């Protein structure tokens, strides 16, 4: 299951059963000039390129590389493959010559086949990604050529091969027969040199890297779980950079933006921050209730007062800059009177005293809104949404719980509304829609009460293997229009990455995707 919050799962205390590359120890002044200190809420994890929970995506992308690379704007460029062609249903890749893993093992067709078969051997772990279901096998044509045999002519194959996980490559020497890796060994520009659980991870240059060496010699990732503490460490110079969606709260980011000592930047929209609304559980099983929620929440006020204008308000599940998503769907604008009229027409009547919650046939119009209790931003948004919906007669119970319980609710459907977000490029819309067919996802649970749920799932499967562009576009229009009209998602805003660093630090670009932090392109001075 691939969700952003899984990447923040807390890690149990453990020790690494491998010997890292030695950390060079130059003079302090030289080390500082060639080092960057970053912060993240948890340790990087075991860094299995085929794994999910406990593996942090930014770190997986530092060590492991794909056959092809996604670049901003939707392009696909060479990575470990220098050329590719489609032959019927199959894809044939020419591999980059002279590449070695950081343990010295050659990267060749045998290594590609070993990794892909390791993924295929545990298909159930990757059911969210349709490409894994489509791959029948990988074959080494020769040492420098690989053929992927697919069951169908799957159109999103290249974008899904570019994802951070699960189709990236570890040294065959560290692949375990039972799954996972015995050590984090990839072909990327970095190696994990040190881990101290609860304190830090240290990444150093991969001395065997085939490409241009990073300007930095090392990246120190300081574990800082709390956003307020993270801001303090940035102020005092203990860290050089914060980067991500919610690393700092809105007030703190705005303060840094007006502080002449710091440089701040906000990326273009990357994904959608939203809540899933449960169509399989009363009272949100009623379309009128879901539509009233859409009209009853003031998104512009949420963006202005909670998100502090760091993210634009969203009215649709996907931003219009993704493939097949610029459909001109009519928004559910903020209209409290319309929301109340929908509820009245559906038989939800207010109590005698104005301001109370509505009832119908003895049932109160009440449901749970679930969020991660330690996430201050989710809590603030939940409280604002609760207030908006109270004004139209809905009693919203806020449930802020630990991450494990939160994910359990996503899987079981025990929610009225629950926080979620889309995944951004290159996942959206195809991979995100593909995952909607998996019961372990909040999307499946939110949609399971829809009368056309089986048709939605059937059409998702069909569009992913469609070979006709016009037919594909028409299918996406039906799918996205249906989900929009059924009001099973409450879009709040389009997510952005935000970065803060001290002025004069040097060059800090944004990555091509939401989850990749381009440390290899950063430089000091």
Automatic annotation (TrEMBL):
Stated family: Belongs to the bacterial solute-binding protein 5 family.
Places the protein is found: Periplasm
Gene3D superfamilies tied to this protein: Dipeptide-binding Protein, Domain 3, Periplasmic binding protein-like II
InterPro entries recorded: CntA-like (IPR011980), Peptide/Ni-bd (IPR030678), SBP_5 (IPR039424), SBP_5_dom (IPR000914)
Primary site of residence: periplasm
Domain Solute-binding protein family positions: 76-441
Recorded superkingdom: Bacteria
Gene name, Swiss-Prot/TrEMBL: nikA
Residues spanning the membrane: none
NCBIfam families found in the cross-reference section: nickel_nikA
Protein's name according to its UniProt entry: Nickel ABC transporter, nickel/metallophore periplasmic binding protein
